[in-house]
Amino acid sequence: MAYVELAGRCLLGLVFLVAVTGKLRSRTAFDDFVASVAQFGLLPERWLPLTARLVLTGEAGIVLLLALPATVPAGYALAIGVLGILSAGMLTAVRRGRRPACLCFGAAGVPIGARHVARNLLLAAIAAGGLVASVATSGSPMRPAAALLAVATAVPLAALVVRLDDIVELFTASPVRAKPPVGPSGR
Q1: 3-state helix, strand, coil in the chain (%, to 5)
Q2: pTM to 2 decimals?
């Protein structure tokens, strides 16, 4: 069980690391992310930059907490909370007829939909399982080869999560791309 927990921890850490770096890779990327938050239509405009910063802080906190052995349970708990809030925001926006671009990983993508919510809920389930497993297996010794295999398993799984929209696009006849948000960067 400790190895499954390690794989889940690495998977979540990598996914959130890509999310943070994608949004912070440039000022334009951050501005586009703020503009995408506005497309959800859930918050007053004055709250958008703060909300975007809070999302980034939460995502960066998950990466940091999951990386430090003493704070792994807190990292899982934060991941569950962040993913729950993001999923609720997505569901609310879709129910209101809004389809903002998914800028979860910093690049303009397809309009949010069921697969994005499902992805978040799957990641939240992994975090919940990881939380239980991290408490149950705390301090369990690991064999280096098996631990390396657990980490190596997480890398392609994280890539699948991060590139999900691209993979779906490969297998659909007519992909629908969202219009990139027009942010303060003038794009």
Answers
A1: 70, 0, 25
A2: 0.86
